[in-house]
Amino acid sequence: DAGVTQSPTHLIKTRGQHVTLRCSPISGHKSVSWYQQVLGQGPQFIFQYYEKEERGRGNFPDRFSARQFPNYSSELNVNALLLGDSALYLCASSLVRGVLEQYFGPGTRLTVT
Amino acid sequence: AQSVAQPEDQVNVAEGNPLTVKCTYSVSGNPYLFWYVQYPNRGLQFLLKYITGDNLVKGSYGFEAEFNKSQTSFHLKKPSALVSDSALYFCAVRGNRDDKIIFGKGTRLHILP
């Protein structure tokens, strides 16, 4: 069975640009969460989506937005990129909202120059 | 506010010896506690979780963790370390009021041959 997939694997952007990251959850999973992992730190919660609605938001600026599609895949969008947005962006899926086991994808490494 | 502390940046253990990776937490209400492992250039892999019940939780790859409510700790343990256990380990906590998971900063485990 396929696990959580994310695309692209790596991405290099320039300050001020916009980026879209994509995530496909495990088949049958309806909840997707996004995390930012800066080098040397633990993942930080950005968003959770369940049944196409935002169910939770971390302490990130409005430059960060996300959405979930009818097939439960998800996009994370970041506008006006800053150098500090350089990080590994992780997507995690779970069967339903409130289920405690989350399964993580391999991440997208974003570098902002 | 929820928080997780992993007091050791790095733990070195000789192969075959027991290992402990420490974690303490702060959360309102009853905690849901997790351990994840991250190998280089990979996403996070779930090891084990504590929800309720027996304070000793057994997980993947021979790992276990002990929940101690009075000390607000959830230390990860393994009776006999393997070189392949060398990786970055994250403790995480979720309160029972929302789905946000808070991660510690991680502990790098080195198993010496």
Account of the 3D structure:
The complex is a heterodimer of chains A (113) and B (113). Chain A is mostly beta strands. In chain A, 0% of the residues lie in helices and 50% in strands. Chain A contains no helices and eleven strands. In chain A, the strands form two sheets. In chain A, strands 2, 4, 5, 6, 9, 10 and 11 form a seven-stranded mixed sheet that branches. A four-stranded antiparallel sheet of chain A has the order 1-3-8-7, with no helix packed on it. Chain B is mainly β and 113 residues long. Helices cover 0% and strands 51% of the residues of chain B. The termini of chain B are far apart. The mean pLDDT of chain B is 92. Classes of the chains: A mainly beta (113), B mainly beta (113). At the A-B interface, strand 4, strand 5 and strand 10 of A face strand 5, strand 6, strand 10 and strand 11 of B.
Sketch the topology of chain A as an H/E string, one letter per element.
EEEEEEEEEEE
Strand content of chain B: over 45%
Helix and strand succession of chain B?
EEEEEEEEEEEE
- Secondary structure class of chain A reads mainly beta
Radius of gyration of chain A: 13 Å
- In angstroms, what is the radius of gyration of chain B? 13 Å
| Proportion of residues in helical segments of chain A | under 10%
Please summarize the sheet with the most strands of chain B: 6 strands, mixed
For the largest interface, the chains and their residue counts are:
A-B, 26 and 24 residues
Number of beta-strand segments of chain B = 12
Q: What is the assembly state of the chains in this entry?
A: heterodimer
DSSP strand tally of chain A: 11
Low-confidence parts of chain B: none
Give the biggest sheet of chain A.
Answer: 7 strands, mixed
Euclidean distance between termini CA atoms of chain A:
37 Å
Overall outline of chain B = globular
Q: Give the end-to-end Cα distance of chain B, rounded to a whole number of Å.
A: 41 Å
